[in-house]
């Protein structure tokens, strides 16, 4: 799969400098950035969906102390 990506001028300059300094490609660093942040983005949207589903469910929350007392903890 090919993805078209146009970095901002400042990003391009930083990528170019990093690539030259390290001998790696700019694509390598774009892939590294994706790997570093994709998990966080997926988790953020998963959590958003979970909260939305909870709010739409009309279920009620209960204080932890009540649950502990009910379970004799």
How does this model look, in words?
The chain is mainly alpha-helical and 73 residues long. It has one domain (9-70). The chain is 73% helix and 0% strand. It contains 3 helices and no strands. The longest helix has 32 residues, at 26-57. The chain is elongated and about 65 Å long. 0% of the residues are buried. The model has no long low-confidence stretch (mean pLDDT 93).
Q: Give me the strand/helix succession.
A: HHH
Unreliable segments of 5+ consecutive residues: none
Head-to-tail CA distance between termini: 53 Å
Q: Which percent band covers the strand fraction?
A: under 5%
Total number of β-strand segments? 0
Main pleated-sheet profile = none
Describe the protein's topology.
Blueprint: H1 9-22, H2 26-57, H3 64-70
Question: What's the short story on this structure?
Answer:
The chain has helices at 9-22, 26-57, 64-70. It is mostly helical and 73 residues long.
Question: Can you tag this structure with a few keywords?
Answer:
73 residues; mainly alpha; 3 helices; 73% helix
């Amino acid at each position: 799969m090919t993805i078209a990506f146009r970095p901002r001028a400042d990003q391009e300059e930083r990528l170019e400098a990093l690539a030259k300094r390290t001998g790696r490609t700019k694509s390598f660093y774009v892939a590294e950035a994706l790997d570093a942040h994709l998990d966080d983005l997926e988790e953020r949207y998963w959590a958003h969906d979970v909260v939305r589903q909870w709010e739409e469910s009309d279920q009620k929350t209960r204080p932890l102390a009540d649950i502990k007392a009910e379970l004799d903890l």
